[in-house]
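Handout, page 2. Input:
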Amino acid sequence: MKLQPVSYSPDEAIERAQRFAEDMVRRRTVRHFDSRPIPDEVLDAALLAAASAPSGANRQPWRFVVVRDAGIKSKIRAAAEAEEHEFYTRRATPEWLEALVPFETNEHKPFLEEAPVLIAIFLERYGLGKDGKRIKNYYTSESVGIATGFLIAALHHAGVATLTHTPSPMGFLNEILDRPRNETPFLLLVAGYPSQDAEVPDIEKLPFDTVVRYVG
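Output:
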């Protein structure tokens, strides 16, 4: 049975769209978390929303690994900080480092242990049939990127703050989390509730007219 798309009256559609926009524009990346746990039901609902995203040929090439174990988080932090040290001391260009100054970031990532949850998001480059043959996936980066956006929005809607962390390379996640070779780490999403002393950079978004143009 095919599902019927949901539609609303113009007035209700406007009200819903504006309410969602007002909620989302309050979202900010957080780097200081307390240890308060996220209810399983919140995580499950947010991940269900993420897994509902559109994907190329409906291949659904996303895989989510939820990490709450302190020992595993410690291993991830150690490996991530090793890569971040290389980035800040050798790989990053002066221009890149200058762009990061307002955010006061460095190679030290205590949030990887402080936050109650890390969600490692993997991109499945190809599937495997029962006979072991490769099954091509399509538009994998676009698909997993959309699913990640759904996940961030769903967690924010539930009052959970997030941080997108992308140490490069991230191959250590395959080893630590025992993921197969056909999966590539896409992003490490740090999730939790802000600590009482948490602060976020005072940044501004580009004007609406700069990023949006209507044609016709």
